[in-house]
Design goal:
Elements: H1 18-60, E1 65-67, E2 70-72, H2 77-84, H3 94-105, H4 119-131, H5 135-158, H6 163-166, E3 176-177, H7 178-182, H8 184-190, H9 193-200, H10 205-222, H11 242-253, H12 269-280, H13 292-298, H14 302-319, E4 327-331, E5 336-341, E6 344-354, E7 363-372, E8 376-377, H15 380-393, H16 397-400, E9 403-406, E10 431-434, E11 445-448, E12 457-458, E13 472-474, E14 478-480, H17 483-490, H18 499-508, E15 512-525, E16 529-531, E17 537-539, H19 547-554, E18 566-567
Parallel strand pairs: 3-18, 4-15, 6-13, 12-14
Antiparallel strand pairs: 1-2, 4-5, 5-6, 6-14, 7-11, 7-15, 8-10, 9-10, 11-12, 16-17
Helix pairs in contact: 1-2, 1-5, 4-5, 10-14, 14-19
């Protein structure tokens, strides 16, 4: 803040006379005004920094702090950011402010709420600054912008909803290191906020396809959505019915029917094909008939589909960051298992998952080995709830299912000597085990990732159930339709494990364990919407009623989750 005394400013002689005096006076005045402006600018900057420091000290306490009705949520990243830069204002580049506002306004395209990021507050502070360059308001504006960016980054990097609050078994926790987060100031200074925010989003194509689907459905909403098909008798090919005209109009809106002859009442081949396409895109049996289930899906309003897309975008933010190059993805609600190599799907098969009473859990683990010709020891829940009541009614059930009774040391026990009337009311002191074979509940092989849920992927003798559209038949495990192909892929880096060798081992009925060369990440996830290969959105049944909880939390106000997300050094 020190300025040079005017008396020490040397001006070159310009000659004699009044002109020289006038020029000297003018030079002195100009220099004085420049120095005064410089001092005022430095003083104003110091005032802004002082106000920032005062706010940061309050924020550091962890108490609820509001700046111009904007609650400041970041009590770790924001204070550290300003401390790193000696409490100087960070948002000095007007382009960065403009870009942040644009990203906040556009956050609805991610299914998020722009008001979570102080949109109204930022505009209000902008208006106040335009009226008067108040250092206190300038400091508040800077802090609110930083909190807005941190909030938006938090939601895009880990999700708005804390999945652990909905599922106590959640194990896909993501922690962010503080130091790399502080580098975001470089993008703010250089006017690169747009690319910074883009980098926060999941980079997987799955996410960006869902974003486009959300935009498309919002456009449909703006155009009035789609018409409802009136209730009535089942509509079938060959019929003529006034309701078919409404059906045609409904199918045209979502691209399931190409014809524009929407006034026709004839349920012709084109309409049948359109109904089949619609059914395929909504997890229904594609029989080409509009019964109760298909009618219900046809009449789901566009607003509900928008919510469904938002829910699945949120799920994607939970899990699609930092994926390994190779992994197995089990889509529970989609009844499908996919194998990804180098980030690309190379194999898929249909699956069966847990019933509504024995839901397949969502979690992440690593497949470590394959067991050919496994035995099956009946798990406690299935033993108590299913097997023992059956044996109590029909002692021959054990023989029908090839189940042996063993003591806790694995020694055989004569089933005829057991008083089955005591069970399941009393604790069962034995084990029931099924020997290897084609009728084994696990089929001919299982893919093991030992976990507390006792859930894994395996073969099944119930192959006919794969033809069903809704495949909720298991007790929690994932039944794989093509286990032989899956095993061959997992072992293709072991030359000795050819398909012929796998067949030979299976035919031997000898239990054989084969370790994978490297454990392979497996994700058990739950998607009720995705974009198919043809660009059509596939909406699935919410088989475990999980969407509502996510949506309610997504629509609630902003809050950081209880668990640690940012790790301080």
């Amino acid at each position: 803040n020190k300025s040079v005394p005017f008396c020490q400013i040397n001006l070159s002689p310009l000659g004699n006379g009044s002109n020289e005096v006038m020029i000297r006076k003018t030079g002195f005045v100009a220099m004085a005004l420049f120095c005064l402006a410089l001092c005022q600018s430095v003083a104003a900057s110091d005032d802004v920094s002082a106000h920032i420091r005062a706010w940061v000290e309050r924020i550091r306490t962890g108490d609820c702090v509001e700046i111009d009705d904007c609650p400041i949520s970041s009590t770790i990243v924001l204070p550290a950011l300003y401390e790193k830069y000696n409490y100087q204002p960070i948002w000095t580049n007007p382009d960065s402010v403009s870009q942040l506002l644009s990203e906040i306004e556009g956050s609805f395209r991610d299914g998020l709420d722009p008001e979570d990021y102080h949109l109204t507050g930022i505009r209000r502070l902008q208006s106040r600054l335009a009226q008067a360059a108040d250092p206190e308001v300038r400091a508040e504006f800077d802090l609110v912008l930083s909190d807005s960016l941190i909030r938006l980054g938090y939601h895009l990097l880990v999700g708005k909803v804390d999945p652990e609050s909905l599922d106590s078994n959640w194990n896909m926790k993501r922690t962010l290191e503080l130091d790399p987060l502080l580098e975001l100031s470089g993008a703010i200074k250089s006017g690169d906020v747009t690319n910074l925010v883009a980098g926060f989003r999941p980079q997987a194509a799955f996410y960006h396809e869902l974003k486009q689907a959300l935009a498309d459905h919002r456009m449909l909403q703006a155009q009035g959505g789609w018409p409802a098909v009136p209730a009535g008798e089942t509509l079938k090919p060959g019929m003529s019915d006034p309701r078919v005209a409404a059906l045609r109009q409904r199918l045209v809106v979502t691209g399931d029917l190409d014809t524009m002859d929407t006034a026709s009442q004839a349920f012709d081949e084109a309409v049948e094909a359109g109904v089949r396409r619609f059914q395929q895109h909504h997890g229904l049996d594609d029989d080409g008939v509009v019964g109760k289930a298909t009618l219900a899906e046809l009449n789901v309003p566009v607003e509900a589909r928008i919510d469904q897309l938002r829910v699945n975008l949120e799920r994607a933010r939970w899990v699609l960051h930092d994926l390994p190059r190779d992994f197995v993805l089990t889509d529970i609600a989609g009844f499908q298992v996919r194998y990804f190599r180098d980030g690309q799907p190379v194999w898929s098969t249909r699956s069966q998952v847990g019933t509504a009473y024995r839901k397949t859990p969502v979690f992440r683990d690593r497949i470590r080995y394959i067991e050919f010709n496994p035995t099956w020891t009946v798990p406690p829940t299935i033993l108590r709830q299913d097997i023992l009541p059956r044996v109590k009614r029909d002692p021959g059930y054990l023989e029908q299912k090839n189940l042996r009774v063993l003591d806790r040391d694995g020694k055989p026990v004569d089933a005829a000597g057991i008083d089955w009337s005591l069970y399941p009311a009393r604790g069962f002191p034995y084990l029931l085990r099924q020997d290897p074979g084609p009728d084994n509940a696990l089929g001919r092989m299982k893919f093991m990732f030992p976990n507390k849920h006792a859930v894994y992927l395996h073969d099944t003798p119930y192959q006919s159930k794969f033809s069903k559209t809704q495949r909720t038949f298991s007790s929690g495990c994932i039944r794989v339709e093509d286990p032989y192909g899956f095993a061959a892929l997992l072992l293709d880096d072991k030359p000795e494990w050819t398909r012929a060798r796998i067949d030979e081992v299976v035919d031997s009925r000898k239990t054989t364990r084969v370790n994978l060369s490297e454990p392979l990440t497996v994700l058990l996830l739950y998607w009720t919407a995705e974009v198919g290969a043809g660009g059509h959105v596939i909406f699935r049944q919410d088989i475990y009623d999980r969407d509502a909880g996510v949506l309610a939390a997504l629509n609630s106000g902003f809050s950081f989750g209880d668990r640690e997300v940012v790790r301080e050094p």
